[in-house]
Amino acid sequence: GDLGLDDGLGLADALQGERDVLVGGAVGQELVVLEHRADLAAQELDFTVPHAGIREYDEALDAMEEMREALYQALTSQWAAQQQREAEIAALAHDLKTPLTLAGGNAELLLEEELPQDYERLIRKISEATVRAKEYVASLLETSSGKEETFTKMQLGEWFEKLRENALAAAEAKGVNLITDNRLEGSWRIQPERLQRGIFNIVLNAVEYTPKGKTVYLEGKMTDNGWQVCVKDEGTGFDEEAVRHAAERLWRGEKSRRTDGHHGLGLWSAAQAILAHKGELVLGNWEEGGEVFVRF
Fold first, then answer.
1. Which is nearest to 176 in space by CA: 152, 140, 206?
2. Of 155, 218, 219, 223, which is closest to residue 189 (Cα–Cα)?
3. How many C-beta neighbours within 10 Å does residue 252 have?
4. With 70 as the cut, is the pLDDT of residue 145 above it?
5. How confident is residue 136, by pLDDT bands cut at 50, 70 and 90?
6. Distances (CA, A) of 267 to 165, 212, 282
7. Residue 130 and residue 124: Cα distance in Å, rounded?
8. What gap in Å lies between CA 200 and CA 205, rounded to an integer?
9. Per the confidence metrics, is the pTM higher than 0.85?
């Protein structure tokens, strides 16, 4: 029969109610999708994506569940690999302590004897290098345990002078010339020992690949916005692969020049120290060999 006014209003109210439920449900599912998209972006993956009861939303949520599971597996594998590498570095550092202690102790005993001046100078360098190596090992152990050196205000010129002394010892041991230029001024908040070790690794890399009788150049100077250290050598230079991968831990170049000549930790350690100081590490070449800029 014909609908009266009241019946018509009642039907309209009922239809509006159904529409509100559907729209409200859709909005609710959109909020679910957005919520889990945020979880994925934040790499918070300990959740299960529910179904919505609406085909289009269920398809989107199923795809999101697949993404979550794949990302969870990838991050779990990455974390496990990182933990393994940290354990290997800590074990390596621990194993180095004993031979370094023996070498340093024997060098100290030899220095107590009457020796020719040249012999005494060489043994003293061995002793000093052993002390530095033990400091590096201690730093590796601290880093693997999560400890870090505090930032302190340091005179840059004084800091560079210590770097120069260490660089000179390394250059003399290899028979390489060292030319330095210290134009650093004022003070800066740094981790003095960590940054010293990091940039010294860059110097060691330069010395390693500079032939005997050639020269390594070490320069520190102020810039418009901060300061920089430049290390140049007359060696083989960096190939394209080394430039791309130098900051990666345990990466070892297979071509003309490896990033540290040994176990892929030298320039990675430098890069990590520089990153902690919000600095920039730039590898390249000049006409005579390799060139590295560190800018702060």
1. 206
2. 155
3. 15
4. no
5. confident
6. 20, 22, 11
7. 10
8. 9
9. no
Beta bridge pairs of residue 153: 189
Distance CA 96, CA 87 (A): 14
Q: Is the pLDDT of residue 247 over 70?
A: no
Q: What is the DSSP annotation of the chain?
A: ----HHHHHHHHHHHHHHHHHHHHHHHHHHHHHHHHHHHHHTT-----PPP-SSHHHHHHHHHHHHHHHHHHHHHHHHHHHHHHHHHHHHHHHHHHHHHHHHHHHHHHHHHTS---HHHHHHHHHHHHHHHHHHHHHHHHHHHHTT--PPPEEEEHHHHHHHHHHHHHHHHHHHT-EEEEEEE--SEEEE-HHHHHHHHHHHHHHHHHTSPTT-EEEEEEEE-SSSEEEEEEESS----HHHHHHTTSTT----SS--SSSSSS-HHHHHHHHHHHTT-EEEEEEETTEEEEEEE-
Which of the four pLDDT bands, split at 50, 70 and 90, describes residue 189?
very high
Residue 152, amino acid: T
Number of residues that this document lists for the chain = 296
**Cα gap 290→294, rounded to integer Å:** 14
Token pair recorded at residue 113: 């004897």
